[in-house]
Structure formats: C-alpha cells, structure tokens
Amino acid sequence: MPRKYDNQPIRISPQSRIRAEDALSKIRLSPGMTANDVVETVAEVIGKPIVLESTVDDRFKTTTGTFAITLEFVFIVFRGIDPHSYQMHSLFHELGHLLCGHTNCERPATAPDSDPTRQLLWNEAEREAEFLAYKIAALISRKPRSSQAFG
Fold first, then answer.
1. Running DSSP on this structure, what letter comes out for residue 109?
2. Could you report the per-residue pLDDT of 111-134, keeping only the tens digit for each?
3. If you ran DSSP here, which 8-state letter would residue 33 be given?
4. What is the pTM (predicted TM-score) of this model?
C-alpha cells in the first residue's frame, strides 16, 4: 500500500481503489521509463498533448502543482524550487488526476488544519491522485522495492 509523507498508509475507499487501479491499467509502465515517457503515455490515453511548466511564482509557495485542461492540450505546472524527486512526485500526482478523469485540482476553501499531509489528502480525488503518484513511481523505478528502502 502506498504511504504518504509520515509513513502512514494512504487510505482510499474500495471504489477509489478500483478507479485508480483501472486508470493505471490503461497505461503500460515499466522500470527505467523516464518522466517524459510517462507524460507521453498519459497524453496518448487522454488524447491530448501535455505541456509541462516549472515555476518559481510566489503563488506556488503552498501549492506544489496543478493542471488545467484546454480544448487543445493539458497544462501542468509544478513548483520549480522543490528537489527533483519531489517535482517528479508532484508531476505524477497531477498525471494521476488526469488518468482518473478528474477535470480539476480542487483546493479546500480553508485549510482543514495546519498539517500539510491532511491538506493534501483532504478529499477522495486527492487521495486517488496521491495513490497513483506512488504507484507510477514504483512501477518505473529501476530498483526493486527492497533496494529502494535499503540502498
């Protein structure tokens, strides 16, 4: 089971798990794929090109990434000041939204509390996208899971 930042399992409903696993089955991922390979694969599934933008805009101080769907393409923006691995996780999270058919990346009107992981996982769509982000990363990793954990 994928784990969030404090090493607790990401809990998703049985319906969301089915939806996420179904979304994942639409793409073929394999060890050694790059982030660009994953983006191209998702673009094929959704039928639109995906444009990526790294930003250092002050409006992204508390938002790690988001996406917008236009008639011609999908635009994904992620925070460029984060470590590369975190940028990749943010990208995979946004791709997870697209794979699940989410049409937007909602934010709570007010933060549920000050814990960033609770803010991130505040609704089922966010939990589905987070679940898929971890699954995508695991599927394209070149190392077996035990090697990831122990070097």
1. S
2. 545 555 555 556 888 889 999 999
3. -
4. 0.80
